[in-house]
Every structure is written in C-alpha cells, then in structure tokens.
Backbone:
C-alpha cells in the first residue's frame, strides 16, 4: 500500500481550499496558510490522514465487508463509479434516496421489485401484458436502475461510507452518524469535519484531486481483497491436506489389528493338532 507523495498531491491540486470567507473554523488544524484570499490545505496532514484511511478501508475490505461510495457532484460521478466497480463495492452517484440507510428495508423492497421485473421478462410474463403496461413497467425499471442499480448487491447495511463532499452529501452523513456507521470523507475547507470518523483534508472540487484520493483508497482495498482471497486459498489447501489424513490413520489402525490377529490365527491350528 503506497501513499501519494507530497509532489503528487500538489500536482493533483489537492491543496486548494475555498475562499477564506467560506471557511469552516473546525478545519483550522488542516489549513497551512492563506494565499490571495484562498486557504491552502496542509498536504503533509493530507498524506498522513489518507494513509490512515486507506489502512482502515483495506482492513474492512479484507474482512469481506462492504463500503458504500457516495458522490453526486458532476466532477466526481464517473470517477467514483469506475473506482467502486473496480473493487466490487456499491456506490451512489445519482440523487441520494432519503432514508437509504435509516429505512434500508424499504430500499431493499425497491431493489427486489427491479429483480421481479427482470424475472417477468425472462419467464415470458412480460410478453402477455398490454402495450401500455409494458411501457409503464419499462419506465419503472429504468428509473429504479438509475437510482438503485449500483446498490443491487447490497443485501445489508454497509460497514462504512466513503463520501467525496460532506457538505453536499450531508443527508447521507447524517444517516450514517445516526446508525453508527463509520464515515470516510474528503473534507474541504468549507466543510465540518466533526461528524467524520476518517477525515481526508483535500480539494473535493478538482477531478484530479478526487481521482488521486480514490485511486489510493481503492488500491488499498484491492490489496485487502487479494489478501482475503489468498488466505481463503491457504485455508482450503490445509483442509484438503487434512482430509485424507483421517482415512490413512484408519487404514493404519486396521492393518495393526490384522497383524495382531495373525499370530492368534496361527496358534489356533497348532492347538487343535496338539489336542488330537
């Protein structure tokens, strides 16, 4: 797991914050200086916090748990979708469905509705409907796919949230806080870091900055998934090696019994001859 260098963070414009008049005083510990009315983020702290967050996300991925990525701002959508898909994690890049976490069973029902429509299409039920009903169902399916298609495999609440802009995604953060779900986030100088468990102070508006941060955490998660796969393979190999050992022990036990019985069998005819 490698953390971006100071120069890489600088080149990706991770250090640019917002105008001084828009700042959140709670971000003061992460601000290096002010230049031309704009706050500059301390990239040494960004690197340290990014390393900490990446290690925690790697551990979550290694344990087989899910991390939900959230980013509905234009410049982050495609990056988040690509990076989350690369590690097989769910993501939300359209409007955040209110109650997605706090009312998760209802969201699951909507996902199941999408699955039932797909089943209708496969088993031929869809072909028996009228043209108007087909149109309504097709539109409903398209709408569900747009908002919930990326979380179709999320069968239970995620173990963590990764948010790109905590100010824009404040509803998602509030729901996670309410349920005690850890929140990892890119936090700019205009945002409040107090409700975030793993703060990554960085520019959350520049696409290069977003891409660099996401690439780092997703690479760490990919490493965690590979380690999990390797450990499973080792465990399976050990189980396979242990399985034939039991029959071998059983065969040795049977052979020992046969050896013990052989002298007794030889003595029996001798005893019969002596009796005669």
Residues:
């Amino acid at each position: 797991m490698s953390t971006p260098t100071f120069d890489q963070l600088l080149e990706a414009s991770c250090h640019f914050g917002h105008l001084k008049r828009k700042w959140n005083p709670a971000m003061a510990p992460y601000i290096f200086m002010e230049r031309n009315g704009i706050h500059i983020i301390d990239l040494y702290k960004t690197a340290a916090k990014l390393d900490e967050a990446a290690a925690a996300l790697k551990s979550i991925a290694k344990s087989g748990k899910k991390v939900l990525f959230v980013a509905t701002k234009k410049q982050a959508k495609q990056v988040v979708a690509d990076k989350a898909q690369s590690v097989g994690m769910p993501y939300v890049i359209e409007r955040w469905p209110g109650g997605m976490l706090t009312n998760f069973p209802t969201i699951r029902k909507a996902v199941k509705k999408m699955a039932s429509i797909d089943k209708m299409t496969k088993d031929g039920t869809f072909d028996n409907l009228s043209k108007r009903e087909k149109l309504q169902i097709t539109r409903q399916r398209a709408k569900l796919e747009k908002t919930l298609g990326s979380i179709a495999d999320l069968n239970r609440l995620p173990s963590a949230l990764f948010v790109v802009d905590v100010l824009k995604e404040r509803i998602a953060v509030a729901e996670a806080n309410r349920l005690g779900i850890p929140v990892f986030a890119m936090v700019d100088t205009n945002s409040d870091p107090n409700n975030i468990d793993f703060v990554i102070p960085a520019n959350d508006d520049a696409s290069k900055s977003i891409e660099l941060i996401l690439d780092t955490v997703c690479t760490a998660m990919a490493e965690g998934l590979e380690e999990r796969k390797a450990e499973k393979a080792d465990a399976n190999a050990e189980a396979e090696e242990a399985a034939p050992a039991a029959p071998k022990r059983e065969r040795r036990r049977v052979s020992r019994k046969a050896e013990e019985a052989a002298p007794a069998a030889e003595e029996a005819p001798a005893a019969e001859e002596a009796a005669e």
Q: What stands out?
A: Residues 95 and 110 are 15 Å apart (CA to CA). Helices lie at 6-11, 43-62, 74-86, 104-123, 131-148, 170-179, 207-275.
